[in-house]
């Protein structure tokens, strides 16, 4: 799906790009394909996928750009989500209990501000 970058829907979804020559999808968006160097068109990614791998960030990242929450730094989970769009996206995993995290679990990624965030996909929306 090609969208106008000024379209208001762009802020809601993950702004990626898809190569018009070899169909590789990238995130974040880039004007050139990393595989063949061909031109890439902007595309809003669907954002649904499964957890590919993950870890726990146990120390505060460099600030800036990291901004600790008002209560101070807390360890958080971060991982790669393999999207249905055939691209892996790094995201903070918004699950309170890290014991609930499983490789392969269905997740939905949203852009928001800064690093993308991933939450468990509600049952029934896994094929959306
Ligand atoms: Zn390409």
TrEMBL record:
Gene Ontology molecular function: any one: DNA binding
Entry keywords, A to Z: DNA-binding
Domain ChsH2 C-terminal OB-fold: 45-110
Pfam families: OB_ChsH2_C (PF01796)
Alphabetical list of PANTHER family matching this protein: BLR3430 PROTEIN (PTHR34075)
Protein name: DNA-binding protein
Organism in which the protein naturally occurs: Streptomyces sporangiiformans
């Amino acid at each position: 799906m090609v969208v106008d970058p000024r379209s208001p829907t762009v802020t809601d979804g993950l702004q990626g790009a898809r190569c018009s020559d070899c169909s590789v999808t990238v995130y974040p968006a880039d004007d050139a394909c990393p595989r063949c160097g061909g031109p890439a068109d902007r595309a809003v990614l669907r954002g649904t996928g499964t957890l590919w791998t993950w870890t726990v960030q146990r120390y505060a990242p460099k600030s800036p750009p990291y901004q600790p929450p008002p209560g101070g730094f807390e360890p958080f989970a971060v991982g790669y989500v393999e999207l249905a769009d055939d691209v892996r996206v790094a995201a903070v995993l918004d699950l309170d209990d890290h014991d609930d995290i499983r490789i392969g679990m269905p997740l939905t990624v949203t852009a928001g501000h800064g690093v993308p965030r991933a939450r468990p996909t509600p049952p029934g929306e896994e094929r959306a």
